[in-house]
Write a structure and sequence with these properties.
The complex is a heterodimer. Chain A is an all-alpha fold. In chain A, 70% of the residues lie in helices and 3% in strands. In chain A, α1 runs parallel beside α7 and α14 (295-330) packs across α16 (362-374). Chain B is 73% helix and 2% strand. Classes of the chains: A mainly alpha, B mainly alpha. Chain A: It is found in: Cell membrane. Chain A: The chain crosses the membrane at residues 12-34, 39-59, 65-85, 97-116, 147-170, 182-206, 212-231, 238-260, 272-291.
Chain lengths: 477, 441
């Protein structure tokens, strides 16, 4: 089926352990992320060393139950101490975590070294459990008929507990995460939920890293929730999505760990590391392509907006040229108060002139014109003006096109919005005349029909704008 | 023992000298840089960077070995670590700038994903038949005790560069830390400055990483800076204190571990710094917990004292003919407990504000006490009057409001209130009690 060596007896259990660890972590990770406590997993996984050493020194055995209890106690202690230093000492959250976990780690190291002759404990081995060894240590379940690895059993229980906690207390978690004061006001203790969450994070971190390695649990506490956070605004969706992402990246990570090194002629590499790399890849995809938050969609949306505004501007400029020619012919010298800079217009309006007027480059204007003519808003001017065609062919390319009937109508709508806004700003908002144009220029692209009508009503349906130019009305023509 | 102590402290052994010098200089630089990252609310950036350096180390080793070079040469590995550390920083800044993900999660993402990549690469490195991969882990766990003179020299040079950059750009970094938006508005290249600051952190982290290990370098970046914050509100002072604390912590830790050879020096340095943090946390003169408790207690005492004097004044004012006030009557005026009232009365009589009879059950104000009590009452009533006249608050409710603010009214504000309420004051210059019968109407 797959082009590489895959053994369900081995790889199946490894992937199962990875998925369970990933799901258990990311369930809680969502709330850590929103509470800005993402680094707690990292802090706990460093800090539990004295718990392990202490449990060993006291119980004198390397039984995993004692180790587990010791580690969980110190893990919860890490969270409590960081909270205490943060609240009482007014120290930055990150810094208080940093102080606590480094000090605890150092004291754990010290305990191990001091009791070295009695303790046979390698910190590296304890802290960095290996997920590859999952299938080796199995428990028999006679009534099931199969032997299940111990790790998978433990992680299943942890996952179940976390899922129950999140499922049962979803509302409480949500309220206390977003508004702790409201939680207290509505009658349940936000700090109780907080400490329950801390305890579960500690249990999960310890259970996961003694079986599958701490790097995986740190990654899965943060990366899948962050990825889901970029994809949705709803907490429920975020929790579900992050579990899915976590599971997929656990599976994908194991496949990557087997496949990628083989391209370079190596055997498989560390699965836990690759699982977190897979989660990182998922995050990168979301970072780039998430529909709302992603980099590229945002960039495209921004460019598209810029582009359509430029097209609008070109269209209205063409209309203004046409209009000034018309007014210039019909009542050339009358125009009372008409300060519109008709005189500043050169006799032959060319693309470079448009580009300069709109503060952009020729290339963009040419493309905008091409776009407009594709949409049937303008047509080439050559056929209508044989006079200008007689000029050189290179000049002919930069002569501006003519508006079509559809284009004129659209331009009139935009110009109408623009001038209605100017009128409104002058009469209702008292904006200074020299700042009118710039403001109206921004609004004109976002003014729909309904707003136009309202503006019209508010300004008593004027026929000329503050500069004395007529306000077109495409519906009446 | 004392001979041994003297040998260590006078730095007679070459090895001890190197270790102590190296870690002390690193502690100095890390403390200084740590202040800036702490105030930038990025205290754990060193944590993220130290983890992010791993794929660079493993990758550099892989590439160098594959090209037939000596993979474990220090410059190559350091270059690899620096490159991937810088990549990590760029990723953090990008995530921070381009998405709504917060600082801590951005650090966490980079930390775990890069470290995961590093672990995966190490998994491949161990399979290589060429080159000797053993010892690459020492980059993560450090090898403080076996620091060579070359390492110490590297630390010294890198630290000097970082300290000089920080001093040269002090003003810019300060603005960046306290008000990024303002710095941007003043035309400082905020992104560039941020990048420079983070590069300095990269250099300190990576130099420290190979010399003393991951956890120690994080501790040196975080703990001295966090401790220094308890002592001062001024950045320069804080930087000086943090550097000194970092240096002292390193010195003490390294010296202790040199005297008792079984103790790992890295852990001892962290513990020494942690001890410094504990001391600062408790007795730091600016934000220390005990100092703040003491300050609050002082404030409460002075508030109690002012309340007591005012109550006494009002009781005498109500009935000018009486000579003294009995204890039980005083007790009923406010919700204070017997013990508290007793303590307040004792203190007030000791300081000469009130006199008491032999049985200590009847009290009267001394002349000094009366002047003070009159001043306090006046202040309280001025504010009440102000609230009634200008804030339209019902007379029944002004007492509580005035109670809350009267203790912090400055003389200037009192003078201002006086001019505002000039024609309400009358001849006595003492406003009437708005709660007394007949006056409130």
């Amino acid at each position: 089926m797959m082009g590489f060596d895959w053994n369900w007896q081995l790889d199946g259990w490894i992937v199962a352990a990875g998925i369970l660890c990933a799901v258990a972590s990311s369930l809680l990770g969502c709330f850590l992320l929103l509470r800005r406590m993402s680094l707690l997993g990292d802090a706990i996984s460093h800090a539990v060393l004295p718990g392990l050493a202490g449990a060993f020194l006291i119980s004198g055995s390397r039984s995993s139950i004692w180790m587990f209890v010791g580690a969980v106690i110190v893990g919860v202690l890490t969270a409590l101490l960081s909270d205490f230093i943060h609240n009482r000492g007014q120290v930055d959250e990150g810094a208080s975590m940093g102080v606590v976990f480094t000090t605890l780690f150092a004291s754990g190291l010290l305990m191990i070294v001091v009791a070295a002759d009695r303790v046979d404990l390698d910190p590296g081995c304890v802290l960095y459990g290996a997920i590859e060894q999952t299938p080796l240590d199995k428990w028999d379940f006679p009534w099931l008929g199969i032997a299940v690895p111990r790790v998978v059993v433990v992680l299943s229980i942890v996952t179940l507990v976390n899922a129950l906690f999140v499922g049962l207390f979803f509302k409480e978690l949500k309220i206390s995460t977003f508004d702790a004061a409201l939680a207290t006001a509505s009658g349940f203790s936000a700090s109780l939920i907080h400490y329950a969450l801390m305890t579960l994070v500690a249990v999960t971190a310890v259970a996961c890293f003694e079986s599958v390695g701490n790097i995986l649990v740190v990654a899965m506490l943060i990366v899948p929730p962050a990825t889901a956070y970029l994809l949705t605004n709803r907490l429920r969706t975020m929790v579900i999505l992050s579990c899915l992402i976590a599971a997929v990246s656990a599976w994908g990570g194991h496949v990557m760990a087997i496949v990628i090194p083989s391209w370079f002629g190596f055997r498989s590499t560390t699965t836990a590391g690759m699982m977190s790399v897979a989660a990182g890849c998922a995050f990168m995809l979301a970072f780039l392509f998430a529909p709302n938050q992603g980099l590229l969609p945002r960039l495209v949306r921004q460019q598209w907006l810029r582009w359509s505004i430029l097209a609008d501007d070109v269209l209205t400029l063409l209309y203004r040229i046409e209009e000034s020619a018309r007014i210039g012919v019909s009542h050339s010298a009358s125009a009372d108060g008409s300060t519109f800079a008709v005189t500043a217009m050169p006799l032959t309006q060319t693309v470079p002139w448009v580009a300069e007027t709109l503060l952009t480059n020729r290339f963009a204007v040419k493309w905008a014109i091409r776009y407009l003519s594709w949409r049937g808003r303008v047509e080439p001017a050559k056929a209508n003006e044989p006079g200008s065609e007689s000029a050189e062919s290179s000049e002919a390319a930069s002569v501006l096109p003519k508006l079509t009937a559809v284009g004129r109508r659209e331009a009139e709508t935009i110009v109408r919005s623009h001038r209605l806004w100017e009128q409104y700003l002058v009469t209702k908002v008292d904006v200074a005349e020299e700042r009118l144009h710039a403001k109206a220029d921004r609004f004109e692209h976002f003014t729909d029909r309904e707003m136009q009508e309202q503006l019209d009503e508010q300004t008593d349906s004027p026929s000329i704008d503050p500069h004395g130019r007529p306000i077109p009305n495409p519906d009446q023509d | 023992m004392s001979e041994h102590l003297w040998r260590v402290l006078s730095l007679q052994d070459h090895n001890t000298r190197v270790v102590i010098f190296g870690t002390a200089i690193l502690g100095f630089a890390a403390g200084l840089v740590g202040c800036l990252t702490l105030l930038r609310r990025r205290a754990l950036v060193g944590d993220a960077l130290a983890h992010a350096a791993l794929p660079g180390i493993a990758g550099a080793f892989l590439i160098a070995t594959a090209m037939g070079g000596e993979g474990k040469s220090l410059p190559i590995l350091l270059a690899g670590a620096t490159v991937s550390g810088l990549f990590g920083i760029v990723s953090i800044l990008l995530i921070r700038k381009m998405t709504r993900i917060k600082e801590d999660a951005a650090l966490g993402i980079i930390l775990s994903v890069y470290f995961g990549l590093g672990v995966a690469l190490l998994g491949i490195v161990t399979q290589m038949n060429r080159g000797n991969a053993a010892g690459l882990e020492s980059f993560i766990y450090g090898k403080t005790a076996t620091m060579t003179a070359g390492d110490a020299r590297l630390i010294a040079v890198a630290s000097a560069i970082c300290v000089l950059i920080c001093i040269a750009l002090l003003k810019e970094f300060k603005l960046l830390c306290f008000d990024e938006a303002f710095a941007g508005a003043r035309g400082y290249p905020v992104v560039l400055l941020d990048a420079v600051l983070m590069s300095v952190v990269v250099v300190v982290t990576i130099v420290g990483l190979q010399a003393v290990g991951l956890v120690l370098v994080i501790a040196l970046l975080v703990i001295p800076a966090a401790s220094a914050r308890f002592w001062t509100d001024r950045l320069v002072v804080m930087m000086v204190i943090a550097s000194v604390l970092g240096m002292t912590g390193s010195f003490v830790g390294a010296a202790v571990s040199a005297m008792l050879p079984r103790l790992p020096s890295g852990a001892m340095i962290v513990l020494a710094a942690g001890f410094g943090f504990l001391v600062s946390f408790l007795i730091g003169t600016r934000r220390g917990v005990l100092v703040r408790l003491w300050r609050r207690r002082k404030l409460n005492e002075s508030i109690d004292h002012q309340h007591l004097l005012r109550e006494l004044y009002e009781m005498f004012e109500l009935d000018p003919s009486r000579v003294s006030v009995p204890y039980e009557e005083l007790l009923e005026r406010r919700s204070w407990s017997r013990k508290r009232l007793r303590r307040m009365l004792e203190q007030a009589s000791r300081e000469g504000w009130i006199t008491e009879n032999v049985s200590k059950m009847e009290f009267a104000l001394t002349d000094r006490g009366e002047t003070e009590a009159k001043r306090l009452t006046r202040r309280h009533r001025l504010w009440e009057l102000y609230l009634i006249r200008y804030a339209d608050i019902a007379p029944q409710r002004v007492d509580r409001d005035a109670d809350a603010i009267e203790h912090v009214l400055e003389p200037e504000i009192v003078a201002e209130l006086e001019t505002l309420l000039d024609n309400e004051l009358g001849k006595t210059r003492m406003p009437d009690d708005p709660h007394a019968d007949g006056v409130a109407s």
